[in-house]
Amino acid sequence: MTATRVGCTSGSAEDAVETTAAGGTSLRYDATAGRFVYNWKTPAQAGQCLEVTVGTRDGSNLTALFRLT
Fold first, then answer.
1. What is the DSSP annotation of 22-33?
2. Is 66:8 a contact under the CB 8 Å cutoff?
3. I want to staple 27 with a disulfide (CB 3.0 to 4.6 A). Which of 12, 32, 38, 43 is the partner?
4. Residue 32 has what pLDDT?
C-alpha cells in the first residue's frame, strides 16, 4: 500500500505520505462485506488530497482518491 499527496484540482502527484496502520493492525480483506479494511492514521492536514494504491497478488493495483477533512 502506498499513499501519495496529490493536487486536489489537478490530481498530479506531489509527494509520498507515510502509511502507518493504527493500533498495530494491517490491511485485510473482509469477504463478508466485500471490501478491504485498513485502520490508517491519516496525516492531520485538513484539505489535503491523497491517492492510495494497493497492489494485489495478481499484480494489479486498486487506487482510491481521498480528501482529508
1. GGG---EEETTT
2. no
3. 38
4. 95
Please provide residue 47's backbone torsions phi and psi, each rounded to the nearest 5 degrees: 90, -10
Alpha helices in 1-69, H assignment, sequence order: none
Long-range contacts, 32-38 (Cβ 8 Å, 24+): 36/62, 38/1
Q: Look up residue 11 and give its three cell numbers.
A: 490530481
* Cβ atoms within 10 Å of 51's Cβ, excluding its own: 18
Q: Residue 54 class from Cβ within 10 Å (0-12 exposed, 13-18 middle, 19+ buried)?
A: middle
Q: Which residues of the chain have pLDDT under 50?
A: none
- Give me the residue spans of the domains in the chain: 2-67
Question: Residue 8 has which C-alpha cell?
Answer: 486536489
Entry pTM? 0.62
